[in-house]
Specification:
By secondary structure, the chain is mainly α. The protein has one domain: Farnesyl Diphosphate Synthase (Orthogonal Bundle), CATH 1.10.600. Helix content is about 70%, strand content about 0%. A hairpin with a 2-residue loop joins strand 1 and strand 2. It is globular. The N terminus is likely disordered.
Length: about 325
Amino acid sequence: MTRAAEQPPTMTQTGGSSDTSFATQLSHWQSRVEAALAMRLPEASTVPHELHKAMRYSVLGGGKRVRPALVFATGQALGLAESTVEGAACAIEFIHAYSLIHDDLPAMDDDDLRRGRPTCHKAFDEATAILAGDALQVLAFQVLANDLTLPRDPAVRLKLIEILASASGTAGMAGGQALDLAAEGRRIGLAEIEEIHARKTGALIHAAVMMAAACRPDLPMEHSAALDRYATAVGLAFQIQDDLLDIEGDPKLLGKAVGADEAAAKPTYPVVAGVVAARTRMQELHTTALNALAPLGPQGQSLVDVSNWLVLRKY
C-alpha cells in the first residue's frame, strides 16, 4: 500500500493526453460501443417483442460505458485495433446490463430509477425484467463464441469465455451480490467490505482489462501481470468512489437518489471506514493502479486516462 500523502501521477505528470483529448477519445469509444451493442441486440420487431424491447431499453439507455472503455483503452495500450476487441466490449456490457436489471428488482435493491429513467421492471414488469437479464447473460457468451470481429483462435475464444464466466459467477459478481445482501444490517470490517467490492464490482472491471489482454496471446508475462495489478486496484477504487457519491453526489448528475445505501443499511466503504479514510484508500488504489502500468511505458497512457476519469468523476 502506498502512503496516504503520496500523490498519484496525473495525465500531465506522465506526459500524456490532455483532459480535452481524452474526453474526445472517451466519447468516441462510447459512441462506438453504443452502435456495436445496438447491432448485436435482437430487434424489437422480432418475436418475442416485449422481451426484446426490454433488452434494448436496458442496454441502450445510456451510461458511462466504463467496462467497454477499459476494454478499448487496454486494446489501445497493447496496439490492438478497436475492431479486434469490440466483441469483448459488447459481451462485458451485456453482462453488466443484466446485472443492473436484476440488482434493481424488488428482491434485490428495489430501485425505481436507473440513469434517470424507470428501471426495467418498472418500465415493463418483473417477469420481463428477469427474462431480459437472463437473455442478456446468454447473449454475452454467444457473442464471445460467434462474433466475427474477435480473434479466430479457439484458444483465445475459450480464454475470453473463461475470464467473463469467472468474473460473473460466484467467485465474482454474483458471489459479491450474495455477500452484499447477507451483510445488510450488520457491522462488518474492512477486509469483508473489500472482498464484497472486489467481487461485486471489481471482478467485471478486472475482466474488462484482462479480456482485451487475452486478445493479444503473445503478450509478455510482465505486461499481463502489470495489467492484472492495475485492473484489481481500479476495480476497488471505482466502487469506493461509487460509495462516496452515494453520500456526497448530486442526484441530478447521478440520475438516481443519493443515500439509498444508508437507507437500506448497506455496509459501504465510507460507512465502515469513514468518509476521509475511504477517500484516502481510493487515492492509494489510484496510485497503485498508475504505478502498475510502468512496464507498458508511454503506451499505457490510455489506461492512465481511464483511471483518472474514474477516480475524479462526479457521477
